[in-house]
Amino acid sequence: MNRMTKIKTFFFPNIWIIVSCLSLLLAYLLLQPRISNIIPFVREYRLSSFISHSKKNNSISAQEFWQLREFYSPGVILLNKPKLLFTSSKITSQETLIDKKITLDEMLPKESDQQILYKNGNEQISTDESAIYVYFIKPTTDMVQANGFFDYKDKDKKLLEGKSWYVSAIIQK
Known about the structure:
By secondary structure, the chain is of the alpha+beta class. The protein has two domains: 1-31; 40-172, no CATH class. It has eight helices and seven strands, in the order H-H-H-H-H-E-E-E-H-E-E-E-H-H-E. The protein has helices at residues 3-11, 15-31, 33-36, 40-57, 62-72, 104-107, 140-147, 154-157; strands spanning 76-80, 83-87, 91-99, 115-120, 123-127, 131-139, 163-172. The protein has a seven-stranded antiparallel sheet. The model has no long low-confidence stretch (mean pLDDT 84).
């Protein structure tokens, strides 16, 4: 048996194993937040998907926003009730509780050259040449559902009375 025949005998019957292993490795790399965020087209796809889902559903999903943060640019969350700050190399977001009577228009920057990509009531996604800006005000029940670890004890539930959840995020392109 010559050398070429030995290679064919080994390689061709086992090609599906090799292809399967390579496919699994590629899928793993693309789905891991800390690995996939270094691939620019994957990061861009996640951001554009978030924006298009918001437009399609006519609403910003708080859970999708949290997922975007973790997959686009994993970072650190600093919690100082009732404020939360998320920082990473490409995203900075601040979350806080505000009076229910406050509207998003009152919270937005007064002078801005941002182009609005999506706006609906108390939700807005806008852009300029360097960043995407996400702003929204939601009920505190959405906050509890989106970030789960806000398990307020009875004494802390008073913090939520008459409050809404405000999020302001800057996502570097």
